Amino acid sequence: MRFKTELRCILFLLKKPLKWATKDMGKMLGGEEEKDPEVAKKKKEEEEERQEALRQQEEERKDKHRKMEAEREVVRQSIRDKYGLKKKEEKEAEEKAAMEQACEGSLTRAKKAIPAGCGDEDDEDEESILDTVLKFLPGPLQDMFKK
Question: What are the alphabetically sorted keywords of the record (predicted)?
């Protein structure tokens, strides 16, 4: 008996917020707009003020981050100077200049560096792919492919 009364109380408490939520649901979905022009005008002004405040906050945040990044760059530069390091852009520029200087008199484009072992081996010393695959096959299959 006690369980049933507790259950009723819980259901009553759950129904009340749902009743309130459904009552305001039309306004949430865009229906039942305020008909008073003064209220609408006031809401519009408040929204414009809010948007302006958001823009201002965003600008302040960006300024703050610009200042922090400038401070970081000063620290980075002091570390580069201390240890004799170069910026990534400077390294790339030097490498590009070296490549251009190497092929200055050439009529063709600069050759890219080829890693060792890629295409510079003799074809006679290499085994064919078929021979390599045959090594891993069982004996009867090897004989069949060799014939």
Answer: Cell projection, Coiled coil, Cytoplasm, Exocytosis, Neurotransmitter transport, Nucleus, Synapse, Transport
CA 99 to chain centre: 32
CA distance 49 to 61: 18
Q: Count Cβ atoms below 10 Å from residue 5 Cβ, excluding itself.
A: 9
Half-sphere exposure of 8 (CA within 13 A, CB side): 5
**Buried (b) or exposed (e) across 29-61, using 16+ Cβ within 10 A?**
eeeeeeeeeeeeeeeeeeeeeeeeeeeeeeeee
| pTM exceeding 0.85 | no
Work out the number of other CB atoms within 10 angstroms of the CB of residue 110: 13
90-133: per-residue pLDDT in tens? 888 888 888 777 666 656 665 665 656 565 555 555 667 777 87
Our CA dihedral for 127, 132, 133, 139, rounded to 10 degrees, sits at 110
End-to-end CA distance of the chain: 92
Name the token pair of 21. 């939520």
- Helix boundaries (H) for the chain: 2-28, 37-83, 88-102, 129-135, 139-146
Eight-state DSSP code of residue 115: P
